[in-house]
Structure formats: structure tokens, C-alpha cells
Amino acid sequence: xxxxxxxxxxxxxxxxxxxxxxxxxxxxxxxxxxxxxxxxxxxxxxxxxxxxxxxxxxxxxxxxxxxxxxxxxxxxxxxxxxxxxxxxxxxxxxxxxxxxxxxxxxxxxxxxxxxxxxxxxxxxxxxxxxxxxxxxxxxxxxxxxxxxxxxxxxxxxxxxxxxxxxxxxxxxxxxxxxxxxxxxxxxxxxxxxxxxxxxxxxxxxxxxxxxxxxxxxxxxxxxxxxxxxxxxxxxxxxxxxxxxxxxxxxxxxxxxxxxxxxxxxxxxxxxxxxxxxxxxxxxxxxxxxxxxxxxxxxxxxxxxxxxxxxxxxxxxxx
Length: 318
Prior knowledge:
alpha+beta, Jelly Rolls, 2 domains, 6-stranded mixed sheet, 4-stranded mixed sheet, 15 strands
């Protein structure tokens, strides 16, 4: 994430560039601030309330209308690019991003979209939610905050969040009990809070020597990948790498690969009509029976049952 605090229009897109008075200025990785805009709630028992939720679908040529709303809005699970200006900050919201639109602040599209767009949205109220600029060293945004949400992030594990938002959207579509909906919303907020604390903690310390290994595994997990291949790439002894990785992350490299593959499989089961067999192949399993065995071991249910559980949606296009 990157935002500018100087006067003018700010631009956030992939954490690499922003505009001030029409000029593009590159930001080098070592110049990025560890500060991020956060929303926090210090109530010991916060009571978020879901107002509405759904999935938006837009065609090329659509542009977000100018709006001011009275609730918070979460935008996530994006397919395509959403050009959105909130106040003076312009965002190109794309896949893997998480965005909060605060209440009583004008937001609008700053250009039409050029490709199909789809995203999930949730309007909710939480009176104690307050904006702050913070870091992992700031006690206000750490231990004392029961809810801690980034205004914008490209670094959350969205697959974990998607599992919960899928359930929320399904129950909303079925006109489920408001208390149940509020409880699922709270689960979404607590999941984001947990991940945000972890991100702030990482930003407040030097990255561990094995973090690049973990990032490399995440990027390549769906292809043919092995401990030997990883060790060779990073010039590690295989036994040393395996031992140190487990000590650092509490998980073996094989388990890490499986975790990334299962998160990808969950998304594909919900977001596509691909067969279970083809999804297994996409996430790295040539043997579909073995894929189904691993999936059930990981989630407790079969891929087919997982897909049926999260099949309903409320779609809108305006």
C-alpha cells in the first residue's frame, strides 16, 4: 500500500506510482512508508451490523457513479480493475486487493472500465470505527484495538477472507437471520484484523531471511515444485532449508505448498464452473482422486460439497 499526504490527487495502484498535479512519480521500494491508514475500534465487544451485501457485475464502458453513503463499504474479491476515487485519493482496485469506503465521504469512478468487472461489496455500520495513521509499533492500533482494518491493502490473504464472505453472501441471499449475518460479518472483520496485525508486525521488523522463500513458494505453488528445486534456487542445503523453514513458520515446505494449492482450489470451485478434475490439474495435481483426497483432508469436505455450499449470490449491475 502507498498513499501520499501532500496536497493534490493521490494515486494508488500496485504500490508503485502516484500522481500529483498530473505528474507520475515512481516510488522506490526502500522509500515506501511503513504507515498505513487504518480503521480501529477499541470497544471490547464491538457489534458490527450488516446493512446489505452482494456481488456487482459491470460491462466495459461502465463508470462508478458519484456517491456519498452513510455506512462503511468493503470492496473485495475483485475480478478486473475498478477505478475509484475516494475523497482526493484515486485507487485502481484490482485482484487481491481489499478496500474500505468510509461513510460520509464522496466516492466516484474517475474513468470508465475497459474490461468486465466483478466484485463483492458489503455495507455495514460500526459506530466506534475510527481512522488513524499507524504502524506495528503503535499501541493504539495493536493490542488495544479489537477491530483493526486497513483502508486499502494488496497484502491480505484474500482466499481466507473469501471463504467467509462467500458464506455471508449466501446467507444474505437466503434472507438469513440478521443476528447470523452480523455474526458472519464480525468473522470477516476479525479475520482481516488478525491479518492486519500480522502485516504491521512484519513491517515493524526486518524480514526474516526465509520470507523470500515463502513468497517464491506462493508464486510457484501451482506448478511442479519440490524441496530440491527450492533449495537449488536459493542455494540452500535441502535438510537445512527444511529444518529452518519449519522452525520459522511452524509448517513444512510440503504443507506450505499444499496450503497455497488448497486456497487456490477453493476460489476456483466458487468462482468458476470448471470441473473438479480440471481444477485439480490447475492447482498442481495430475491425479484427480489424489486431489480430492488432499482437499477433503485439508477442509473436511469434498470439493463438490464445498462448491454446493457456496453457490448462491446476489448480483447487481448498477
